Amino acid sequence: ANYKNASKHIAVLAFPFGTHAVPLLRMVRQLSDASPGVVFSFLSTEQSNNSTFPKDEKLDNIKPFHVGDGLPEGYSFKGNPHEPVEYFVKALPGNFREAIDALVAETGKRIDCLITDAFYWFAADIADELNVPWLALWTAGPRAFFIHAETDVIRRHVGINGPPDKALDFHQEFSAISNADLPDGITSGNFDAPVPALLDKMGPSMSRATAIAANSYEDLDNTVVNLLKSRFNMFLNIGPFNLASGSPIDDTHGCLDWLNKHNQASVVYISFGSVISPPPHELAALSEALEESDLPYLWSFRGNPEKQLPPGFLERTSSKGKIVPWAPQLKILENQSVGVFVTHGGWNSVLESIIGGVPMILRPFFGDQRLNTRTVESVWGFGLGLEGGTITKEGTKKALNSILSTEEGNKMRLKIGVQKELARKAVQPNGSSAENFKTLVKIINTTCHQ
Ligand code: UDP
Question: How far, in Å, CA of 222 to CA of 237, rounded?
């Protein structure tokens, strides 16, 4: 990156876990394409930068910088995905403050604007100190954002540790959601855990952001979007990002050729995202449900399928199924042969399912995933949660059958098909996301230091 001749220098602060840094870099790449002359310094942990930045492509005006990960000397990962997150959150905001100082010293270029993951409440203070605008990216859905913005109201209304099945009737838009669907630390659970504590501080600080961008589009959850637009300086839906910018397809395992051999809406695609792996008994139940339903399946499997799936399952289903360690998910969901997506309900996965027009079966684990599940099932009506919230053989067989072989499933396909078209329209020229994106570019060009 050419810092010397840059017209502006923007520091970008990424959250280095789950699928957070990837959409942030997507947005920054789009901003960079629209703002030649601006350099972006992208701050994340070394591990996150290594997996987020493309290997075979150089980004001219976006340069990765590493921040401390907060891990103790000699730390070794033992399998709990929440542990590194907790160490990292404990190192905030000191690690970013140090990195920003080092960045300015190294490049000789002061910072003109701050773009961060919306998780970083402290960015409001740093932006004030630097006297620059703060743009935040919320990488999940508008409904989850509203929950964090309204945490105090929700706590007053439904109480702390109240009944799990109590409806969130603090607002009519939320009456289909219940207490138990909320992220941990809103009305129950461990309030002091690092991520809930971070999000608790995020709510009140967001009104200090010059603009909040979100990876969604205005027609999805429009009433909630309008509430947010009326409440914040600028709430700009500019997604879905991966519709707005194509990325090269890595299909080393031949998933797409395999899918092309199958009938329309017949294949079960399974993935639980980049963090979670369901417990062994649920993996076994899912395998049995697939086998007994005799359905073709494509499974993006984190871990070792030979060791973790029931003995003989792989052999018995070898003509029906394909298991890969990582898949080109968006392209898979866009393939005509995929009929249902078994997912953990991460926001990126929900959006990609919409882009593909594929109804979902959701097995949520943490964060916004329960909320997304209930919203997809009860508000939008294009997916199913599982009875009891976990994967059982019978529950999964029933849900698979319902989506793939019943009128109810066809209706879901039609409903999600409507959103698919709206999402595509949003990113076309003059679409709402395209227009909102122009506003964001304008903010960078007019309010940041000159
Ligand atoms: N993903 C992928 N290939 C896989 C599994 C996941 O490309 O085999 C991508 C998926 O397309 C999505 C992201 O990983 O963009 C998962 O994000 P999500 O928000 O759903 O879940 P998280 O990873 O944050 O738990």
Answer: 11
Tokens at 234, concatenated: 């600028």
- Beta bridge mates, 385: 362
Query: Where do we find the tokens 């930068």?
Result: 49
The string of DSSP codes covering 341-375 is: EEE---HHHHHHHHHHT--EEE---STTHHHHHHI
Q: What is the dihedral of CA 81, 283, 280, 21, to 10 degrees?
A: 0
Q: What are the tokens at 25?
A: 């870099």
20 catalytic residue (yes or no): yes
> Which residues form ligand 1's pocket by a CB distance below 6 Å?
18-19, 271, 273-275, 300, 326-327, 329-330, 346-349, 352
What proportion of the chain, given as a percentage, has pLDDT over 70?
98
Identify the residue whose tokens are 């007019």.
446
| pLDDT(156) > 90 | yes
Q: For ligand 1, what atom is nearest to the CA of residue 20?
A: 24
Asked if the interface predicted TM-score (ipTM) of this complex is over 0.85, the answer is yes
- Cα–Cα distance between 304 and 180 in angstroms, integer? 32
Give the integer Cα–Cα distance in Å for 176 and 170: 11
Measured CA to CA, the distance from residue 25 to residue 32 in angstroms comes to 10
pLDDT at residue 450 greater than cutoff 60: no
Supply the residue whose CA is at minimum distance from atom 16 of ligand 1.
Answer: 273
Q: Catalytic: 117?
A: yes
Mean pLDDT taken over the chain = 96
Catalytic residue among 112, 117, 219, 221: 117
pLDDT digit string (tens) for 351-388? 999 999 999 999 999 999 999 999 999 999 999 999 99
Query: Of 375, 366, 368, 326, which is closest to residue 347 (Cα–Cα)?
Result: 368
Give 53's DSSP letter: S
Residue percentage of the chain with pLDDT more than 90: 94
> How do residues 297-348 score in pLDDT, each as one tens digit?
999 999 999 999 999 999 999 999 999 999 999 999 999 999 999 999 999 9
Which ligand 1 atom is at minimum distance from the Cα of 275? 25
213-246 residue pLDDT tens? 999 999 999 999 999 999 998 999 999 998 866 6
Task: Calculate the alpha carbon distances from 400 to 45, 131, 234, 347 in Å.
Answer: 39, 54, 41, 21
Amino acid letter, 135: L
Rounded distance from Cα 321 to ligand 1 centre (Å)? 20
* Ligand 1 atom closest to the CA of 274, numbered from 1: 23
For ligand 1, the distance from its centroid to the CA atom of residue 274, given in whole angstroms, is: 5
Q: Which helix (H) or strand (E) holds 96?
A: helix 94-107
